[in-house]
Amino acid sequence: xxxxxxxxxxxxxEQIQTFLAGTSDVHCALPAEEPARRTFVEEVLQGFRYPCxxxxxxxxxxxxxxxxxxxxxxHLDRLIARHRQSQSLEPRARxxxxxxxxxxxxxxxxxxxxxxxxxxxxxxxxxxxxxxRAFEKFADTRYARLATISVSHLYNLRxxxxxxxxxxxxxKTRPSPIAIALRKAPAPQGLPGYxxxxxVHQGDQDGLKGVYHINAVDIVTQWExxxxxxxxxxxxxxPVIALLLEGFPFQILGFHSDCGGEYVNHEVxxxxxxxxxxxTRSRPRxxxxxxxxxxxNGAVIRKFMGYSHIPQKHAGAxxxxxxxxxxxxxxxxxxxxxxxxxxxxxxKVRKTYPHDQIMTPWDRLQTxxxxxxxxxxxxxxxTLADEANAMSDHESANRVQQARKRLFQSFNRRSRSAA
Length: 419
Fold this sequence. Notes:
Blueprint: H1 13-21, H2 34-47, H3 55-69, H4 73-84, H5 106-119, H6 124-136, H7 151-158, H8 161-166, E1 182-183, E2 194-201, E3 204-205, E4 208-209, E5 212-218, E6 224-229, H9 234-247, E7 254-257, H10 266-274, E8 278-281, H11 291-305, H12 315-332, E9 340-343, E10 349-352, H13 361-367, H14 381-388, H15 393-412
Parallel strand pairs: 1-8, 2-7, 7-8
Antiparallel strand pairs: 2-5, 3-4, 5-6, 9-10
């Protein structure tokens, strides 16, 4: 429907009311262009002397303009307010923004991209020094402005579009720092309960993962507990860690690991926080932070379990072997070396391993002053002594060898069910 606007036929408020009621024969066409619509609004406001109208009649004109022009209420209010102030309703020209004179031109950006390409994008200070040397030492006038650039603005130029059009550098995703555990070496101060833990993988075969051994060792007494899991995901690892912590005869005060994700995660951190155990992890370029656990991996886990692939389905059987045979043997019947610190003539600490300090972890625990006060609830020196004296060292070793033989035979036993 085409509506031809005829202002001559809408000269009174009554005619506008009739038009709004839908009974008027006046036909109008809404101006499509924005300047024409503003002109129409200004002509109506001036023709009816809008500011001088009574409030009720102003409402009639207001509704008429809103219906014909299609403006929102807020925008129409702004136009009427400008008309009241005797201002033109023409669109206001945008005021020019404050601009600053460019100090570095596109040619400087291109020169910076060429410099970065030659030197493989050095750091900001190093690139600044190269530009300054090129101008001052080698008299290359092209670098006159870049020789005075600040490091911060140099990075601004690198982030600009002209620079990116000439040179784009792709970098690997940088790992975000993880605020879990303290990065320091554990300091037990001669007290039991500070354990180091590590994971040993039993190899892959034909794309299939093997079992994972969890090896936890106390720093002072070398009390060692081993466990086995199918996978190192949270569902498998968290229950095993909780059982290992409960398996030590003394209260756990510290938990130290390397930076592997199987230990450095929020789930393990919440478990240790619930037990009020200090959580530490290895520092960079400090290979001795977890050396004790790494040493036990080779001297115990690899020695008894070897390097061959063991399928994950045997994790339960290996765990029973550890709990029933290997762990008691390691702690009550297998001697370990214990270091003695001596200070040499130069003032350096030297570790020695005298023969009189070779003893089992249980014997080492008994040498600590007032060791019963460190024992976990429900553990007494008598219960530990009874377990240690239940069999001789040779009998315990023989039990381990027989249990290991049966364990490896179960690995190689073929299933009788059809494939």
